[in-house]
């Protein structure tokens, strides 16, 4: 990525959310015989659709503004290039469950960093904070499946 503008960044965010929604919907079908995994991926897909709508609305609001990224923000966002996950996620249907979970965990983690970079540039921090919180929750839920192969609903879960 070179010379990112705020519109470029928001386009990447929209694409990431579209990709995430589609990938999670596809994964819910792939794991339809496992009710917990199916529910997890359906829930993640719904969240991604909501995030996409937010970024589309934010893009409309900022299209009339002449926001520019400071050099430090541009370099940061280039360093956390979530677009590098687009191709592997589209091919995730052919991966093992372990490979899928590692890939989507890394994607969610990189998304959090990317959205922190966006938050530092735009004025709608509260909504971005909420998206970041939800993405962190995605990471927690995915990590629980990685570690225990079961669903994690909160700190009060019975771990035995």
Instruction: Note the overall shape.
Output: elongated
The helix-and-strand class reads mainly alpha
How many domains? The number is: 1
Main β-sheet description: none
Q: What is the mean pLDDT?
A: 80
Q: Based on DSSP secondary structure assignment, what is the total number of beta strands? A: 0
Work out the strand percent.
Answer: under 5%
* SSE pattern: HHHHHH
Whole-angstrom Rg: 16 Å
What low-confidence regions span 5 or more consecutive residues with pLDDT below 50? 152-160
Which superfamily, in CATH terms, is the homologous superfamily?
Ferritin, core subunit, four-helix bundle
Question: What does the model show?
Answer:
There is one protein chain. The protein is elongated and about 50 Å long. It has one domain (6-148): Ferritin (Up-down Bundle), CATH 1.20.1260.10. Residues 152-160 have low confidence and may be disordered. The protein has helices at residues 6-30, 35-63, 71-79, 86-90, 97-119, 125-148. With 160 residues, it is mainly alpha-helical.
Please write out the topology.
Blueprint: H1 6-30, H2 35-63, H3 71-79, H4 86-90, H5 97-119, H6 125-148
Helix pairs in contact: 1-2, 1-5, 2-6, 5-6
Give a summary of the structure in a few sentences.
With 160 residues, this protein is mainly alpha-helical. Helices cover 72% and strands 0% of the residues.
């Amino acid at each position: 990525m070179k010379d990112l503008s705020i519109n470029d960044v928001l386009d990447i965010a929209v694409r990431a959310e579209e990709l995430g929604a589609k990938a999670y919907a596809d994964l819910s079908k792939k794991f339809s015989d496992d009710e917990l995994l199916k529910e997890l991926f359906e829930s993640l897909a719904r969240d991604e659709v909501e995030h996409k709508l937010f970024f589309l609305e934010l893009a409309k609001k900022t299209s009339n503004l002449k926001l520019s990224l400071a050099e430090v923000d541009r370099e940061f966002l280039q360093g956390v290039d979530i677009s590098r996950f687009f191709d592997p996620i589209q091919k995730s249907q052919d991966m093992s469950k372990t490979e899928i979970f590692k890939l989507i965990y890394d994607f969610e983690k990189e998304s959090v960093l990317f959205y922190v970079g966006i938050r530092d540039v735009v004025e709608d921090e509260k909504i971005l904070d909420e998206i970041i919180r939800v993405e962190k929750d995605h990471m927690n839920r995915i990590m629980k499946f990685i570690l225990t192969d079961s669903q994690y609903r909160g700190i009060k879960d019975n771990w035995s």
